[in-house]
Amino acid sequence: MTKLKGFAGKILHIDLNNLTHHVLPTQDYYEWGGGHGFGAKLFWDLSEDIEVVTDGRDPRNVITIAGSPFSGTNVPSAGGRCEVTNMSVGLIPRNRFTRSNFGGHFSSMMKHAGWDAVTVTGKAPYPVYIDVRNDHVMIRDASHLWGKDTHETQQIIQEDVASVEVASGWNGQLDGNSFGRTTQKASVLTIGPAGENQSALGCLIHGAGNAAGQGGNGAVFGSKNLKAISFIGTGAVDIADPEALIKARFKTRDFYAADIDKSAEFAFPSLGGKPEAITFSTMPTGHRVSSCHGCVNGCKQRNAIGYGNEVTCQTSVWYLGAVRSYKFGGNAKLSLAKTGVELTEDSLYAGDLANKLGINTYPIMGLIPWLQKMHAKGELGSGKEIHSELPYERLGTREFADQFCQAIATGTDIGAYFINGIVPGIQQLGHSADVDNGTLHYPYYGMPEHGYDPRAELEWGYATLMTDRDMNDHGLNWIYWTVNLAKLEGIDFPIPAEVLASRFVEKMAPYVQADEVSAMDYASHNMYSEVLARQVQWINHYGRFWKNSALMCDFRWPDCVNTHREDLRGATGNDEVGEHVWWNAVTGEGISYVDGIERGRRIFNLDNAIWALQGRHRDDAKFADYIYDHKMTHNKLPTYLWPATNGAGQWDYREMMGRQHSREGVEEWKSHYYRAEGWDTATGWPTRSLLEGMNMKDVADRLEQAGKLGNEEV
Amino acid sequence: MTTNKNSFEMDTGRRHFLAAIGGAGMLIGLSGTAYALRDEKIYIKTSGGALVVDLKKCMGCGTCMTTCSLAHHGKASVSLSRIQITQDVFKSFPQDIEMSTCLQCDDAPCVAACPVNANKASEDFGFVRDIDPVKCIGCMQCIEACPQTPKRVQWNPITRSAQKCDLCLNTPFMEEQGGIGGVQACKKVCPVGAIGFITELPDQSTPKSYVVNLRNENWAKTGKTIED
């Protein structure tokens, strides 16, 4: 393939067993796009024994942190995302190759330093960190950093990297035989004590609060004795058509993005979303909205109160229910019905605490109300059935948050039970029934519910079953937020349900036809339909390339509905500012929107081949029992409205609460999905004809050798 | 690389100019040069415009920087950008962000320091202070002369010459006409409108006078302060 622009040209391979590094030419990986595609192919190429490694903490695990051609550019809401891939820690029924993703400025700095990705194998004999300054790579002793929190670690490294000032406010960095200059601080990705202790709840942190945690990424770093990776770069990304890139960015600004100077009115929160911190409790006005590199409108914040910077989205609310419970009574379950400013500061404090210790806040949020309940029943506390010295009577205070987070991060006190994950810990304590009956909301693979119950938000549950983890794709999910918050505020949602559904379906090429509006119909009579399988197929393939590999932000892409456009049609797939416009301007290729999705299909099938080798089978893909056995009765908002038809075929936003799945129905839907993908419906494994059709004969051969090749449909 | 939209007409060389002062100083400022005589002192004529910034509005996305380097150089870079956004994400608002633009100083010490008149202010382009990379000999005296931190004149290691904000006068990779009266890429691309353009330079005694409040009531509606 012709050398493409947009790529730095080098992938950094760190071998911690030997404390050496190697350069892999990016050109060998072009066809995988970047991000997840790079991670999957590098995992395939560099893993010694895919079949036998069963835990992400095995030194043979391959962890890759990858950027894309968009990293370090001004492609809207794509310049700063970064993909992490590795074998997981703490998932059930088995660990598997998995992914996470974080924002900020790490991938952009990595690109400006001249690297497309860094992949790490082996285990260092002592704690180390990787210090990259342009093309100069050092594997350095991290003994002075071990034990420090994520913020302090980054600050120490940043100070060291910026030690040579060459002009006032500019520091100098070696760049080949030359000397580059920058005003910027090094971008650092690090673990805190949770990762050091190899807790499944440990995550990677970059900046104040950009985190990658689902799948135990922090534990993987810790198991490798790897404290941090730092990049500083003074270089540039070559762009194929810079004029086209600037032109498209200006158009995005003028016609698709929110212009806050002109209006603060409702805007559908994908590409057209307003610059607003996504913290679900009311913020003090003394803050700024902050963003990742190149964002079209940010979603994070930094505060005047002295803490809580970049504590965003779920991290801002993991302790909110507890704070409310302590101050006003009631249980500690999350509710966003009333979120006054009196709850905010303690919630931000707790978010900050977790970020500093490097704790993944999703799994611990669901644990808090369970601990409260067990304490109230007299089964948890000092000398009780579950012994713990934490001050449970003060659950909801900063004091409790401090002690709880320390215990989780260090694997002491109550944290000792959960070092391998929440669900394994609950099982160890003899309370599996609470997972099965839905007292604890961990609906799939031992992972916490993301906040979107599979009984209501069908695509979230289904896509998770068909992939490796809680899918974390908000492409359709913005419907939930906009419709249900409007309901909560007592206002009518401005877009009729059928129009909204149509706008989404129009973007689902090539799997759903533009007139198949039923692909968005979440009515019970359509729950297990074949068209919903194709809708999820679009989500998975679109996501694997445009979001996970090209690294367009999940919060801003796809842009299916855009309220700044008269016809409400978003940027996705269009020839003005659609996904492929950016790809072609940056790289110089000439691909279409659907070509990108086809690349996503190939990457997704390589994933599935890896999962098959790791033991995955159709039988793994199932929800926790409560999803089938109990009706949905709780949600963080009082309603769960979604576009749906009634028996007469009339569209409206209809209530999804009170619904449950049937095992037979889900199995029927899975069969639809496997057929749509061309996978063996009995096992879920890919077939030879499918893989060879995507130029992956070597993958088919390997699966056949392992006895994991799917049978062709007869 | 496309052709530069702006044809440069170089003004009189500084050394030539200084030599002329001895005999015909009173003519200065009357013949379209970049220099003027005021209060018995020689001044470089005031720039017809400059950028101003709102430090409380910026969200630190860096889009202005990569767009600046794209417009001027065709590459996405932070080091090559003529506007520098620096951040310390661990500091509290509003001390966490600094936006560093060229002030287009009235006395333009960077122009005065240039020994070859590569750093100049031309009447044809509204007296914006800019550097001709071809004429620049790479002596870095203009960088030294800039009184701001971080220095607003940068070193370009690729061309081995100095560069500075020219208000997008010389932007071969931007379709729009730049410069005074045209488009400034950083201002146009800023998602939240944290960069403004003024045609009357503010008080020159402090760079803080280039910090303005660009937030209106819509900003307040999204829960953020609009106080200075």
UniProtKB/TrEMBL annotation, chain A:
Species in which this protein is naturally found: Shewanella canadensis
Tree of life domain: Bacteria
Molecular function per GO: 4 iron, 4 sulfur cluster binding; electron transfer activity; metal ion binding; oxidoreductase activity, acting on the aldehyde or oxo group of donors, iron-sulfur protein as acceptor
InterPro entries xref list: Ald_Fedxn_OxRdtase_dom2, Ald_Fedxn_OxRdtase_dom3, Ald_Fedxn_OxRdtase_N, Ald_Fedxn_OxRdtase_N_sf, OxRdtase_Ald_Fedxn_C, Tungsten_al_ferr_oxy-like_C, W-dependent_AOR
UniProt keyword terms in alphabetical order: 4Fe-4S, Iron, Iron-sulfur, Metal-binding, Oxidoreductase
Residue span(s) of domain Aldehyde ferredoxin oxidoreductase N-terminal: 7-235
Family of this protein: Belongs to the AOR/FOR family.
Cofactor(s) annotated in UniProt: [4Fe-4S] cluster; tungstopterin
Residues passing through the membrane, by range: none
Protein name, as recorded: Aldehyde ferredoxin oxidoreductase
From TrEMBL, chain B:
Keyword vocabulary terms for this entry: 4Fe-4S, Iron, Iron-sulfur, Membrane, Metal-binding, Transmembrane, Transmembrane helix
Transmembrane segments: 17-37
MF annotations from Gene Ontology: 4 iron, 4 sulfur cluster binding; metal ion binding
Pfam families in UniProt: Fer4_11, Fer4_4
Keyword flag Iron: yes
CDD domains associated with the record: DMSOR_beta_like
Family matches, as PROSITE patterns: 4FE4S_FER_1, 4FE4S_FER_2, TAT
Matching Gene3D superfamilies: 3.30.70.20
Coiled coil (UniProt feature): none
Domain 4Fe-4S ferredoxin-type stretches: 49-68, 93-124, 127-156
Protein name: 4Fe-4S dicluster domain-containing protein
Source organism: Shewanella canadensis
